[in-house]
Amino acid sequence: MYNSKITGLGYYVPENIVTNDDLSELMDTNDAWIQERTGIKERRWIDKNSDESSATMGAKASKIAIERAGLTKDDIDFIVFATLSPDYFFPGCGVQIQDMLDMPTIGAIDIRNQCSGFIYAISTADQFIKTGMYKNILVIGAEYHSNGLDKTTRGRGVSVIFGDGAGACVLSRTDDNSKGILSSHLHSEGKYADKLIVKSPSIKNWVPDIINTNGEDTSYYPYMDGTFVFKNAIVRFSEVIKEGLEKNNLNTEDIDMLIPHQANLRISQFVQKKFGLSNDQVFNNIMKFGNTTAASIIIALTDAWEQNKIKENDLVVLAAFGSGFTWGSVIIRW
Ligand code: UT7
C-alpha cells in the first residue's frame, strides 16, 4: 500500500470585494452584527458581468497547484471536484477542468458534500493513491454562491455568510509511510438534510413549476436553521477531530495546525477553546473570504502554507461539518 501527500497547493478568489457595509445597502444588516456573530469582515463575490464560475475559478486554482507540485497537466491521472454550486445541473465541473486545462482524457468525478466536500474529495483521492491505481490526483473545491443567494432582508441569515472562491491541491503517491495523509474519517446523518438545504430546482420541482408560483416558491434559495446547525457543528467538529487523533495515537497537544472549515469564526473559536489550542495552532481566514463551503478548507490551507505557517513534519488536521449533515476530518503529517 502507498501513501499520498500534498505536493502542490493553489487558490483563486474573484477580485470583487464585498464588505459588510456593502451588504447593508442591499438588506437590513450591519457590520457589527455580522462581525460579532460570524467574524466575517468581507467576502469575494463574482462580478455578475464576468464569465467566472466554479469551474473557471477551479481551473485557475488548479494551474497554480500543478505548477507548485513541479508537474504539468499531463502528469495528472484523475480529477476530483467538490462543489455545491456547479456550472451545470449536469455534467459536473470535473469534466470542465479536464477540458479547460487541456488534459488527456483522464477520469473526473464530482463530490456533492457541501461544507464537507473537500474532506470527502481528498479522502476519495487518497484511496485511489493508496491502492496504487493513480499517482497524481488533482483535488479541487470551488463555489460560486453569490448568484444563488437571497440578497434581501428575507435572506440575511444566510446570504451574509457565503463567499465565492476556489482552491486546489495535487495529491501524489509517496513511498514514505510516515508522511502524508495518515487517515481520514467521514460521517453523515441524512435525517437533518432539511436543516441546511437548497431544495429546488430539483426533478420533483423543476423550473416551470417554480415560475408558476409567481415568486412565492423560494425553495431555490438556501435555507438554514442556523442555531441548530451551529449546535450540531460544535459537537461533530470536536468528535471527528478526536476520532482522527485517537486513530493515530495522537493527542490535541500534537496538533501543529488545525484548519477548520470556515463556517463561522465562533465555531472555530469554540473548538479551539475546547481543545486548549493556541492561536498559532488554528488557522482562520473567514474574516476576508466568508464561508466558501467546499472551497474553504483548501483556500485556508493554501493561505496558511503561503504564510509559512505549515512546516515539514507538522501535524495538520483538517475538519469540516455542514449540510447533509456531513462531517469529517483528515490527519496529515506534512
Ligand atoms: O458552513 C455550513 C455550516 N454552517 C454553519 O455552521 C452556520 C451555523 N450557524 C451560524 O453560523 C449562525 O447560526 C448564524 C450566523 C447563521 C446566525 O447567528 P445566530 O447567532 O444563530 O443568530 P439567529 O439566527 O439566532 O438570529 C438572531 C437575530 C434574529 O433577530 P431576532 O429574532 O432576535 O429579533 C435575526 O432576525 O439576528 C437577526 N439576524 C440578523 N440581523 C442583522 C439574522 N441575520 C441577520 C443579519 N443582520 N444578517
Question: What tags apply to this protein structure?
Answer:
13 strands, Peroxisomal Thiolase, Chain A, domain 1, 5-stranded mixed β-sheet, single chain, 4-stranded mixed β-sheet, binds oxa(dethia)-CoA, alpha/beta, 23% strand, globular, 334 residues
Please tell me the total number of domains.
2
Bound ligands, each once = oxa(dethia)-CoA
Can you tell me the overall shape?
globular
User: Strand order, biggest sheet?
Assistant: 1-7-6-4-5
Rounded to an integer in angstroms, the radius of gyration calculated over CA atoms is 19 Å
CATH architecture verdict of the largest domain: 3-Layer(aba) Sandwich
The N- and C-terminal alpha carbons lie at a distance of: 19 Å
> CATH superfamily of the largest domain, called what?
Thiolase/Chalcone synthase
Q: If you consult CATH, what is the topology of the largest domain? A: Peroxisomal Thiolase, Chain A, domain 1
The structural class is alpha/beta
Give the helix level as a range of percent: 25-40%
Largest sheet: 5 strands, mixed
Question: How many strand elements?
Answer: 13
User: Into which percentage range does the β-strand content fall?
Assistant: 15-25%
CATH top level label of the largest domain = Alpha Beta
Total count of helical runs of at least 4 residues: 11
- Give the ordered list of helices and strands: EEHHEHEHEHEHEEEHEHEHHHEE
Q: Overall mean pLDDT score? A: 97
Low-confidence stretches: none
